[in-house]
Amino acid sequence: PRFQINPYSMVHARESTDLGGGAPGLLRCPTTDENGYRFVKLDNGLQVLLVHDPKTDKAAVACDVRVGSLSDPDDLPGLAHFLEHMLFYSSEKYPVEDEYSKFISKHGGQTNAFTASESTNYHFDVNWDALAPALDRFAQFFICPLISRDGVDREAHAVDSEHGKNLNSDAWKALQLWKHTANPDHPFSRFATGNLETLLDGPARKNVEVHTRLKEFYEKHYCSQLMRAVIIGRESLDDLQALASSAFGPVPCRGLRAPSFSPEATPRAGLLMKAVPERSGHTLELQWRVEPELKHYDAAPCQYFSHLLGDEGEGSLFALLKARGWATDLCAGESGTSFSAASIFRVRIGLTDAGQEHVPEVTSLVFSYLGMLRQPGGISHQVWEDARALAQLRFDFAEKMAPSSYATTLAGAMQVYGRHDLLLAIHHVPQRYDPELLDTVLSTLCPSEARVLWASSSFQVPTDCPLKEPWYGTAHSAGPLPAEWLTHWEAAWGGEGAALGDKDGHRFCGMHLPPPNPYIPSRFDLIKESSSSPAKIHATPLYTLWHRPETGFKVPKTAIYLHLRMPEAYLTPRAAVSTQLISRLLTDKLSEVAYPAELAGLHYGVRATTSGMLLSFWGHSHTLPRLVQTVLDSLLEFEVLPDRFELAKEHQAKDYANMRHEQPYQHGLYLLSVGLEARRWHVRDYEAVLPGVMGDSLRAFQTAMLGTVRIDALIAGNVPAADARALLQALEARLLAGRCSPLPASQRTEARVVALPSPMRAVHAVPGPNPANDNSAVVVAFQAGRDDVRRNALVDLVGHLGKREAFHTLRTVEQLGYITHLSAFWTLTVSNILVLIQSSAHSARYLQSRIDAFLPKLADSLRGMPAEEYAAHVEELAKAKLEKPKRLRDAVNTDWSEIDDGTLRFPRKELEAAAVRSITQEELVAFFEARESRGYLRVLSFWL
Ligand SMILES: [Zn+2]
């Protein structure tokens, strides 16, 4: 794929008022966009984009400040990020600690922020009617934050814990390796997250006052003129403007200008780095320095090359690498690690074990493809137009972004793009075919400008990788690219593709530009009927079909779920592994046809489940049936190709092994599900049987598996009942014509959960999945009971009321770890209250003791909560439940869960919201205390 797979296109101009000092003009919007927009520049220079969305449930605000980690002082790496954390604490106007976050979360919202190279972005969403008070609290970040001394000491631990969580991440490690080998005089080369050493202990030894320096940094870099804010709400544009002025008007203007940085940041061309990753497997990444796409966003040259290099259809680079058995995946495009003066174009290839042995050939093929593009016709107006047409299609029928991400994206974009092109730019809409610019970029993607990061778990330390990166400890080596490789690359790039081990004698090894896409729909009409819940419209011994016509979202799309329940599929660990391999081989076989379908907005999934195989389809109603047909053909006429089978097995083994690289808390959640679900195999059982599964046995298994089937189906969206029926009838006829017989009712396996005896408190202390990960974690589940409207409501209320308390006590005050969590949690159809903590500083035993100490406090706080406050919380939760789905797919997904789980509670959310509203404080406290005071009824706890 491409790194940026979100290029919308086609715009129509919409009049927008522009009070930002620019000429009144047109903001170009997508056709489906019904929002009102207005730009405002406040007296202090702060620029605001107001978005009036009359239907939104959530209001959202983002403020992007043009300063980031590139501005960190030399002696305090991570200071910009640390300040981002500190602004959440309190302000002169709202001095109570965590007041902002608590207020937002009480009103159904979420807060977050991130620190990038050149900007720091703060954002939240909240129930639409709480926008004004939420915005007022938020704006204090930029007016009068209180940065307390003891807060600084405590929050440094949270930053350290955040870094601790990143320590075992290959993405973070790779980024830091690029920084490590970058120009050492450029701030890009530094460590940007911060940890205890850079933010607390190191400065203390040198008598550096971090508390003072945070304040200095704030005053030196935070200025109204460097801020761009976005406010999305239901209010009219005039009302939103008044809100913006009163909230952001007092932000001080310090007359600052945005800092600028030299483009000379990246590592030198000709560099070859080898590294040992955390995860099993091999990846190869080629990088070139390019001009940032934001400078040419209307012509989007990098997007053109990512469309071509990232192609996976017939004739693509990836198809060739795959056919040779060398690659498992490929991504190409401008990377996200760039900043405004310099950017990176990269091609990242996941290698098979055979690919690992052929790295010079693999890279030569990349240059062969680029060499092909350099030939006459390689830069093609036709291909550019095709890519643009696909982008237009995605754009025309794009569904709404969540308000919070929309605000965040827009605020960031306002820092770099022209006002009228803002939406075009964030949707990656190419506007202008510029062959000369394309040619310029293409000529920089050349052998002599490349640098390479080659990561493999087969590299030996210290033989292959004698060096150690200081922040993440990544074992690596750095040296020049072998001259021999460069010679091959130059030949390939020069168009001598035929010389490069081409078995078929084709020039460029048979690679060519993408052919016309057969999946582009041309009919977009909507059916007339619409229904708010699915109905069972047909049942035979083989299948049950549910149907829900739904066109309220105005998109001509259909969703199809087919759950093939087959008793053979999950009978033993060996059967489960075989089913997983079949799913993988199907996806593998379909990748060339599915890629153009995906570009045209059609998606499918094949997944092995604990009762069989789930097929799902989603996309344009007009061409979706063609994709469904192709996938079903492949499943029913399944054949095992020996070389693809061996690769699938290799990949499967790596996936199992890589579960060891999950964070400890993730592994705890996994163990919880495995422990509580009655029929669930453990991944180590899979690892044990995988080597014994052979290609010919798999073919036999497939026949046996499909011998007895029962299908649960849901077809929803822009599709008439008759079409839905026809699809299932055709499938049934095909299955019965084969050797398939319907699964008798007596053989249906129900998904069951282990009922923990009561009272019981079980603790499993297990080693973390990865010995190299120093974090400890505790995952505790209080089992409540089976699906029951009232009990679900009680559990949800505990989760809703408890999560803020948990965050405040366990993270902010006690600083136990970056990840602290309390919520309702489901194992299949059984509800639990889940508490988890992951810590880089404390033992699991200690974390458990803090949870034990916290729960009685939570009970007290539930009991002592003022009645109005309780009522307000209840109302918030009820509202959250009643929130309408934003997209067709979300609505259909909810229906599918009810059908798949067999709970069939329509409309669940309405029933649960009514139950929530009827629960008194006394009832809630009694419910909570019943588990609390009587020695933990039904607790399962995992210590890692
Ligand atoms: Zn952070």
UniProtKB/TrEMBL annotation:
Keywords: Hydrolase, Metal-binding, Metalloprotease, Protease, Zinc. GO terms for biological process: peptide catabolic process; proteolysis involved in protein catabolic process. Residues 395-686 form the Peptidase M16 middle/third domain. Residues 48-185 form the Peptidase M16 N-terminal domain. Residues 212-389 form the Peptidase M16 C-terminal domain. InterPro entries: Metalloenz_LuxS/M16 (IPR011249), Pept_M16_N (IPR011765), Pept_M16_Zn_BS (IPR001431), Peptidase_M16 (IPR050626), Peptidase_M16_C (IPR007863), Peptidase_M16_M (IPR032632), PqqF-like_C_4 (IPR054734). Residues 797-896 form the Coenzyme PQQ synthesis protein F-like C-terminal lobe domain. It holds the Pfam family Peptidase_M16_M. GO terms for cellular component: cytosol; mitochondrion. GO terms for molecular function: metal ion binding; metalloendopeptidase activity. Belongs to the peptidase M16 family. This is Peptidase M16 N-terminal domain-containing protein. It comes from Auxenochlorella protothecoides (Green microalga).
